[in-house]
Amino acid sequence: MKKVKADPKGVLTGAHYLDGDHALAEGALAAGCRFFAGYPITPSTETAERFAERIPKVGGVFIQMEDELASIAALIGAAWGGKKVMTVTSGPGFSLMMENIGLACMLETPLVIANVQRGGPSTGLPTLTGQQDMMQVKWGSHGDYEIIALSPDSPQECFDLCIEAFNLSEIYRVPSFVMTDECVGHMHEKVVIPPAEEIELVERKWYKGPKDKYLPFKPDEDMIPFMVKVGDGYHFHVTGLTHDERGYPVINAECQNVCVPHLVDKINMNADKIIKLEEDETDNAEIIVISYGITSRVTTRAVRKARKAGIKVGTIRLITVWPFPEKRIKELAKKIKAFVVPEINYGQVVYEVERCAFGQAPAIRVPHCGGWVHDPEDIFKAIKEASK
Amino acid sequence: MTEIRFSGFGGQGIIRCGLIAGKALSLFDNKQATMTQSFGPEARGSACSSQLVVSDDRVLYPYISAPEILVSMSQEAYDKYEPELREDGLLLIDKDLVKPKPPRGKIKSYSIPSTRFAEELGNRIIANLVMLGFFTAITRVVSPEAMKKALPGLVPERFLELNKKAFDKGYEYGKKILAEEKKPKTSKQKVKK
Predict the structure, then answer these.
(1) Contact A15/B59, CB-based, under 8 Å?
(2) Chain centroid to CA B157
(3) What's the number of domains chain B is made of?
(4) Which ipTM did the prediction report?
(5) Which end of chain B is more exposed for a tag (fewer CB within 10 A), N or C?
(6) Domain span at residue B56?
(7) DSSP structural state of residue B10
């Protein structure tokens, strides 16, 4: 993995007052993103607008596509053309992207997608918040595959995690997602953008060998195949069909059982390296609240109140939601009374917690179908109930 | 922690008020300020608002629940948001555009003809800056220096000076009102002192 410093051209060093949507765009530009293709949708449009204004100034391209299907197709093309690429959307657009997200996974194409979540299903609540696409991001396209998804809790983290998403996407040749929401997306806060030399980026793993020996899907020692740029004179083939190391379709069970496990294993076997959690007082906790994104901030209020009431509460904030911190949850489940999982949906990640707890501790959901963040009081009540 | 709501009708620069004050507090006054805005289907002309939560520490809950400070620049916004203002809150209104109800609880009310002042300065579009100057003087939540530092980038560059002038106009008016308030009005008060 070759590390490089950010190109100062894309880095707006300084302290700014930005909303999460704009911070996403700045994070991407700092990470070296020079191609954006997307279709506007509330509440993510501000990101696209920022790209449209800023990316031409740093030598990049902004295209407003005809729809979200084409947006991802364009990203895949531009990524194979050598660019770092990104798009942004919300629920309905995310649904439309699913087919080509599968293609990107199958082609092991590095790209970043931000989903500024709003209440669903369907057109739902265009202008109001939700965290209802957390399972869709993992399971939304057909077939077996893995992705990486991060969840920022502030405009500052929209910036930071967007860079992280680009790095992870390059390291593992996989679509990476920044799963934010309307609340964080439209919330203005201070965002500090460091100098370019303090921003560490990962350079794509370029193939340097003889032109006739390049194999686009041959895993290297670290499981990740090398890439080349289209137009640099390499003859290779990519297809959404099950393929061999050359990228040629091989339609049989043998090839399928090499190709697909690779897509899953390259992420799962590196999960420990990818996963980032923020834990607080989990060591002696009876109750552990697991949350992510804006909900984790609201949770803190409830947790403080619960601690004042004498309840031993710990918290885990999932900065990385996928891959899921299976091991850590399993470990903690043996020692505690219960997990409490508030999220702005009717229950999604809570069932993943339940699965990882292997029956050792219950996972109690604190649902909220969107439109607003939780009332901290509801989370407090759930903690209190669980501690009884 | 302080919760503030700026309100008025769409097009008055109400969101801008939240942005300027939020930026001033966060970048130049060493506070943490989270700004959210109403994102409903409101079109120009209907009630519109921006909210600020100001704190020394990290803001956890991003929305306001019972603001201490309400700024209203239209009747509709005043009618909509006045009931949520705390009993001991501060109310700031545009004198010509809002007709307030009789005072409630210990709410302290201040008014300024911000739109009229802006028109006198040459453009009613800067009424929000007159109001922000007034807000800065009366509430003392944010420093006037920070507010002025926050302006570049948030108002068009060619109108920067005019915006500063508008801010000063409101600020001075607010200062004057506060000074008058301090002055003893009756002999009774003199005795008290």
Answers:
(1) no
(2) 22
(3) 1
(4) 0.93
(5) C
(6) 2-192
(7) T
Nearest by CB to B62, which of A16, A128, A294? A294
Task: Round to whole Å and give the CA distance between B31 and B52.
Answer: 12
Model pLDDT, residue B41: 60
Q: Which of A188, A300, A301 has the CB atom closest to B19's CB atom?
A: A188
Position A193 pLDDT exceeds 50: yes
Chain B hits for A376, CB-CB cut-off 8 Å, are 61
A277 phi/psi in degrees, rounded to 5: -125, 155
CATH superfamily membership of A2-203: Thiamin diphosphate (ThDP)-binding fold, Pyr/PP domains (3.40.50.970)
CATH of domain A277-383: 3.40.50.920
Q: What CATH number corresponds to the domain at position B67?
A: 3.40.920.10
At residue B40, does pLDDT exceed 70? no
DSSP structure class, residue A315:
E
Q: Which residue is closest to A15 within chain B, CA to CA?
A: B27
Q: Could you report the per-residue pLDDT of A44-81, keeping only the tens digit for each? A: 999 999 999 999 999 999 999 999 999 999 999 999 99
Q: Supply the pTM of this predicted model.
A: 0.96
Q: Which residues contact B88 (CB under 8 A, 6 or more apart)?
A: B68, B105, B106, B107
